[in-house]
Write a structure and sequence with these properties.
- Helix content is about 45%, strand content about 15%.
- The chain has 25 helices and 25 strands.
- Helix 12 crosses helix 13 and helix 22 runs antiparallel to helix 23.
- The chain is elongated and about 135 Å long.
Length: about 775
């Protein structure tokens, strides 16, 4: 209106500009210049660079030293004033002199810098003000600003112990050894603590800094409520449904559109919610993830996998407790010379795992530590050693059983202590169940205070470890052959022949029984002459020194195998001919000697495999030819089969030298009872083997006689008999356990109590 009145108005137009709005009140934010408190960091920054360069301060991973030097060498003055309602109020006071109208106003452009005084208390500041303005009436006004959060945090290493007072806690706990934090606040917090401690205390607050990775979702995205990919650790530990995840979105201030978007993200990533994983599985997974560097892409499915692994550890200990027995006493020492090869090997692998884990932890390579521990428990103890324990416990001598039990106990006890920092709750529970000597249990009532394992070098045998690793390669090849020929049942246990070069045979010497057990073979025999191998074998080269032959007579169709092997032989010949053609080209002469040597080795391998395949084909053809030859011979003799010998002719006479008393004939009425033997009890039961992890259940008829004898049958056929019964005890109201010198069985029957009493009575247990 004024402009219109004066005739000065020329028009109006919209002018685009950015206005800062408060996120809460939506008021327009108007910038205003205001005096601030600053810290000159040049000297402190240079000192922080020097302590890292000369090795006084170690940063892990070392890659972040570059980030440290970039910040410290280019450091600027630090503004420590903050206009907030919370925080440490800046201990600076403005002096107002009575009668001085030009004294200025603190916090405004009119303030005078020489009017500021500082003090830990208002009394100390007043004393400083009077000394600065003697003989004048003065009044103090404290600055309303508070200190920057990182300034207050930088004082944390010593202010938490009531600094500046010289308290006992300050002397005892400052400085410390290690700081563990995220790499994103390396400058904002770590550098400030170093600068503050060096400036105010004269020492470094810690000697090492370990920077952990940042946790992101499985797709590598930063966790955000709007994406619906925020993972609450408690939800992973306790488990949560998809509906429960949706409810977590309603507690914030997300826009309704963002809520729907987040729900879709949750449906995609967790269609069935999150399974209950427990603290230990989550802890182990996060530590195992640290190899990813700056970020951890957390996949909950991997955490679930570690939860299942926890169950496997529980089952391993349960199996061990069952074989150790209630009367087992833990050994005071174990001597390598008293052990079998399998026991020496597992103790060697245990101590190698200890050495690897300790070294990795000292170097903050936690992924390597978890890998070493997982490999020992999973691949060495559970997959191999426990399988090798079973034959010993079934038919080994007392000395062998004792040594095996002691070794198994040592692996579990030490292995749990090795795993404890990564899975504290599970290991405490399992460790408490292990039998221990009274003195040891009294000194260390909890695994948390038990000493961490140390490597015992006398148990490390690298040559044996290498030999067992080589035998593992052979086992895998035999298993692969079994799968190729469809031998999936453990009841199908063919014999295996290994055609070996002398060097390879030496590696496998003494390990044949282990290979047989692990490959589910009837027997394994190492030979150096192919003539010792029977016809009708499946064949597969392990390497240049060993070829595996699995006897397949009666297990597979020879005609089908001939077709399969001939096809494979043609492929092998084609591969060799293609390589030979390439090697015959003129330009091949320019090929480096290294690649020529590799090609020559490939040609040799092709020829070796062709010879093995041709031999296998000949073997199967011989299998087909035998029945034809037998029919031809029968036809030449007139077509009549040879008469079978009578039972009287076929049965050999008993020799007095072999038996003092001839066996009694069986009673014709019973079919399984001996003459004069009476049946005490008979009933249908279920027999379970005490195998590791899985149980097989078969219907049986259990029979107890007054001899006493205890046998189990299928129909009218005797399937097995317990030898010397050592114990019989109730497992539950519907099951009991029988231990003999040959086996251990869990018998399920509603009459468990009656069976237990009858067996105990007749065997005088």
């Amino acid at each position: 209106e004024f402009l219109h009145e004066k005739g000065l108005f020329r028009g109006k137009a919209d002018n685009e500009m950015r206005l800062g709005l408060c996120s809460r009140s939506k008021d327009v934010i108007e910038p205003m210049l205001k005096p601030q408190w600053w810290v000159n960091c040049k000297e402190m920054g240079a000192d922080a660079v020097n302590v890292v360069r000369n090795g006084e301060l170690k940063i892990v991973p070392k890659d972040y030293e570059k980030t440290w030097f970039f910040w410290m060498e280019n450091i600027r003055d630090w503004c420590i004033s903050r206009q907030l309602w919370w925080g440490h109020r800046i201990p600076a006071f403005y002096v107002q002199v009575e009668g001085d109208e030009e004294g200025g106003i603190p916090g405004r452009n009119s303030e005078k810098k020489d009017r500021w005084v500082v003090g830990r208390t208002e009394e100390e500041a007043m004393a400083n003000a009077k000394a600065k303005f003697p003989g004048k009436e003065i009044k103090l006004i404290q600055d309303e600003d508070v200190l920057d959060t990182w300034f207050s945090s930088g004082l944390f290493p010593f202010s938490s112990f009531k600094w500046p007072r010289e308290t006992d806690d300050l002397k005892a706990f400052f400085p410390t050894q290690l700081l563990e934090t995220g790499h994103d606040i390396l400058f904002f917090w770590v550098a400030r603590m170093v600068m503050m401690s060096r400036c105010l205390m004269g020492v470094l607050p810690f000697k090492e800094v370990f920077l952990h990775a940042m946790v992101r979702d499985a797709h590598g995205r930063k966790m955000s409520k709007s994406l619906g990919n925020v993972i609450d650790p408690l939800d992973v530990i306790r488990g949560i449904t998809l509906e429960g995840l949706h409810k977590t979105l309603m507690g914030g201030n997300l826009d309704p559109k963002e809520v729907e978007k987040a729900k879709e993200g949750q449906k995609q990533d967790y269609p069935e919610g999150i399974e209950e994983c427990g603290t230990d599985a989550l802890r182990f997974a996060l530590v195992a993830y640290t190899s990813q560097g700056r970020d951890v892409n957390l996949d909950v499915k991997r955490v679930v996998g570690y939860r299942h692994w926890c169950n496997k550890l529980f089952n391993a200990l349960r199996y061990a407790m069952m074989n150790l027995g209630e009367a087992y006493v833990a050994p005071d020492e174990i001597r390598p010379q008293d052990l079998s090869l399998s026991c020496k090997w597992i103790l060697s692998r245990l101590n190698q795992a200890i050495a690897s884990t300790v070294k990795a932890m000292d170097e903050y390579q936690f992924t390597q530590a978890t890998t070493a521990i997982y490999a020992f428990w999973q691949y060495d103890l559970c997959d191999v050693f426990i399988e090798l324990v079973k034959p010993v416990m079934a038919s080994g001598s007392d000395a062998e059983k004792k040594a095996t039990r002691d070794t198994l106990w040592a692996c579990l006890e030490v292995g749990l202590r090795l795993l404890h920092p990564f899975m504290p709750f599970l290991t405490e529970e399992l460790w408490q169940r292990l039998p221990k000597n009274a003195d040891y249990a009294k000194e260390f009532p909890s695994i948390t205070i038990a000493p961490y394992p140390k490597c015992a070098e006398e148990f490390v045998d690298q040559s044996l470890v290498d030999r067992m690793a080589y035998s593992g390669v052979v086992v895998n090849k035999i298993r692969s052959l079994r799968a190729t020929y469809g031998l999936v049942s453990n009841k199908q246990q063919p014999d295996v022949f290994l055609l070996c070069e002398p060097e390879s045979k030496a590696k496998l010497d003494g390990l044949e029984s282990y290979v047989a057990t692990l490959s589910v073979s009837g027997s394994v025999r190492c030979v150096t002459d192919a003539k010792e191998i029977p016809e009708g074998c499946g064949v597969a080269p392990v390497d240049s020194g060993v070829v595996a032959y699995v006897v397949l007579t009666g297990l597979v169709d020879p005609e089908g195998e001939i077709k399969r092997l001939e096809k494979k032989l043609k492929e092998c010949e084609a591969g060799r001919q293609k390589l030979e053609k390439r090697m015959s080209l003129p330009e091949y002469a320019k090929t480096p000697d290294k690649f020529k040597a590799e090609d020559n080795e490939k040609i040799a391998n092709f020829k070796s495999e062709e010879a093995n395949l041709a031999q296998a084909v000949d073997g199967f053809r011989a299998m087909l030819a035998k029945p034809k030859e037998q029919k031809q011979q029968q036809a030449e003799k007139g077509g009549k089969p040879e008469p079978k010998p009578s039972k009287e002719e076929a049965a050999p006479e008993p020799k007095a030298a072999e038996s003092e008393e001839a066996p009694r004939p069986r009673a014709e009425s019973s079919g399984f009872l001996k003459v004069g033997e009476k049946m005490v009890m008979k009933g249908d039961v279920k027999k379970k083997s005490t195998g590791f992890f899985s149980f097989t259940s078969q219907a049986r008829t259990l029979v107890l006689t007054d001899a006493p004898r205890l046998l189990y049958m299928e129909g009218t056929e005797t399937r097995g008999e317990f030898g010397r019964v050592l114990s019989c005890m109730m497992k539950s109201d519907s099951a009991f356990v029988i231990k003999s010198d040959q086996k251990e069985r869990i018998i399920e029957t509603p009459d468990a109590k009656a069976w237990t009493e009858a067996i105990a009575k007749h065997y005088k247990l």
